[in-house]
């Protein structure tokens, strides 16, 4: 850590903004390749969301993000990367200058560099619902960080709202951390496509998660056209997931409490989302965790005037960039969830690849294994246990093609 | 009351951290050096960190990654020189003084 003050640095080869899996792996490879690298991380610890991840892989092995993040940090340190934690990069100027300040306040500093990698990750989409501003309401990612990184329970009890890969795995991690997870329920009616039928369809994306027997069942059912509605009609009211009731016919109505959370009001719904009259009831709880998916954090890219493209396949609006993370601005690169929400395994690989590209750009090493590594990235995507967007590879291919097109014929 | 997870069934133990004595709105607390002040307060059962500018409603840690700014606090004993920090980000040091942002000063 830097002790609360950031001094100006002249002049390095690469500044990496973001110390999550993509930023750490990029910093390590770049420094191992001979570049002088500064890594900026706004948190006190590096690792980003990787540090809080905890789930079982298909082979039963635990994916312990805490250990993986520490191992990666050790590699980054061995490679001689200068790590500035507790530091916020608040502006990037072409040329390149990165302006930064301490998370504890204080004067701004500037770092001059030949290249910049934006690896700022993703943020959670809010789920506005009555009572969501009460202390004791957390995003599911906030609950993950508290439980697995800071080792503090978000509550003695919790109701998890939203059914997706993150909510299911984090609910389990919360239970492992000693939280009494009452149940996982559907989001409130105003969240689009959140009725039991639509939710069941989406669960197909989880079908590779071996321990989720019911998820696999759901995925198999969804492959047969027309079965979604039938499956939803026969859904039991509660499916046990590691002892946590997954309630696909219960949805949140509002969070209850005066000055802090005291409960979650829920109602029973039919397959099409229609509420069952008279079914409202309050679950007593001191915390509610809301999960509504992630969206790339790209404000630094936007501030630089990069062209953005909306890709349904990627599931987000992201800057136009090459397959290896180059942008239209020479010396500016992107990697990780800032270009699309994917698993940490993919982010780690993206970081390696973008570092290969940066080393080549600065003339340190030709990127001889570019195509091989892009092939490995493709394979990782195909094998990923966490699929947020099933067609994300196609989306990235389209964006890379658009990047090439723009290189050949730039916009006026 | 504490909600600290002392022995996790799967995760390795975090490195040992020295106690950090700090105050929040004049009350004394003990956290672990380097952990975010909002996590230390949550472990001590404190959920309300500030009040909202318009209606004065209580607000607490929400996103945990420094993005939503719902946990912003004043850090520093002197009102003139106190810095606004995010409670989910600001690492505690021994002797820190924190104060809620209230209403329009937040």
Automatic annotation (TrEMBL), chain A:
The keyword Transmembrane does not apply. The keyword Repeat does not apply. The lineage of its organism: Bacteria, Bacillati, Actinomycetota, Actinomycetes, Micrococcales. SUPFAM superfamilies: FAD/NAD(P)-binding domain (SSF51905). InterPro entries: FAD/NAD-bd_sf, FAD/NAD-binding_dom, Metab_Enz_Cyan_OpOx_G3PDH. Keywords: Oxidoreductase. This is Sarcosine oxidase subunit alpha. It comes from Leucobacter komagatae. It comes from the Bacteria. One of its GO terms (molecular function) is oxidoreductase activity. Signal peptide: none annotated. Residues 13-181 form the FAD/NAD(P)-binding domain.
From TrEMBL, chain B:
Keywords: Oxidoreductase. Signal peptide: none annotated. InterPro entries: 2Fe-2S-bd_N, 2Fe-2S_ferredoxin-like_sf. Pfam families: Fer2_4 (PF13510). SUPFAM superfamilies: 2Fe-2S ferredoxin-like (SSF54292). GO terms for molecular function: iron-sulfur cluster binding; oxidoreductase activity. This is Sarcosine oxidase subunit alpha. It comes from Leucobacter komagatae.
């Amino acid at each position: 850590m830097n002790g609360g003050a950031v001094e100006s640095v002249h002049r390095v080869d690469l500044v990496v903004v973001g110390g999550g899996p993509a930023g750490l792996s990029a910093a390590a490879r770049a420094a191992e390749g001979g570049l002088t690298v500064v890594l900026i991380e706004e948190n006190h610890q590096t690792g980003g969301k990787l540090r809080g991840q905890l789930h079982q892989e298909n082979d039963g092995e635990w994916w312990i993000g805490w250990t993986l993040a520490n191992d990666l940090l050790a590699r980054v340190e061995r490679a001689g990367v200068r790590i500035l934690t507790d530091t916020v990069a608040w502006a990037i100027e072409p040329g390149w200058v990165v302006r930064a300040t301490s998370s504890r306040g204080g004067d701004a500093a500037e770092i001059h560099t030949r290249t910049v990698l934006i690896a700022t990750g993703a943020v959670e989409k809010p789920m506005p619902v009555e009572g969501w501003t009460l202390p004791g309401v957390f995003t599911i990612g906030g609950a993950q960080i508290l439980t697995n990184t800071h080792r503090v329970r978000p509550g003695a009890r919790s109701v998890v709202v939203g059914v997706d890969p993150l909510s299911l795995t984090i609910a389990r991690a919360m239970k492992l951390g000693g939280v009494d997870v009452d149940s996982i329920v559907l989001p409130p009616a105003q969240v689009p496509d959140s009725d039991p039928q639509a939710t069941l369809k989406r669960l197909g994306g989880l079908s590779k998660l071996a321990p989720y027997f019911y998820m696999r069942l759901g995925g198999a059912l969804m492959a047969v056209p027309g079965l979604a509605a039938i499956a939803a009609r026969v859904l039991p009211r509660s499916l046990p997931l590691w002892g946590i009731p997954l309630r696909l016919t219960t949805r949140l109505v509002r969070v209850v409490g005066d000055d802090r959370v005291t409960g979650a009001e829920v109602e029973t719904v039919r397959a099409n989302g229609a509420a069952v009259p008279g079914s409202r009831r309050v679950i007593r709880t001191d915390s509610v965790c809301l999960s509504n998916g992630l969206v790339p954090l790209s404000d630094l890219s936007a501030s630089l005037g990069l062209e953005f493209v909306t890709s349904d396949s990627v599931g987000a609006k992201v800057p136009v960039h090459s397959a290896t993370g180059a942008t239209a601005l020479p010396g500016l690169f992107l990697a990780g969830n800032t270009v699309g929400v994917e698993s940490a395994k993919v982010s780690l690989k993206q970081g390696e690849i973008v570092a290969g590209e940066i080393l080549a750009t600065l003339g340190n090493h030709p990127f001889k294994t570019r195509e091989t590594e892009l092939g490995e990235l493709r394979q990782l995507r195909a094998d990923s246990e966490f699929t947020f967007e099933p067609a994300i590879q196609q989306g990235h291919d389209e964006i890379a093609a658009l990047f090439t097109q723009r290189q050949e014929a730039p916009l006026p | 009351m504490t909600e600290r997870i002392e022995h996790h069934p799967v995760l390795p133990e975090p490195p040992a951290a020295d106690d950090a004595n700090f105050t929040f709105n004049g009350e004394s607390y003990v956290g672990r050096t380097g952990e975010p002040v909002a996590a230390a307060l949550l472990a001590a059962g404190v959920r309300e960190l500030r009040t909202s500018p318009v209606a004065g409603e209580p607000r607490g840690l929400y996103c945990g990654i420094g993005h939503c700014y719902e946990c912003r606090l004043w850090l520093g004993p002197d009102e003139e020189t106190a810095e606004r920090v995010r409670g989910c980000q600001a690492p505690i040091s021994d002797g820190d003084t924190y104060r809620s942002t209230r209403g329009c000063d937040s």
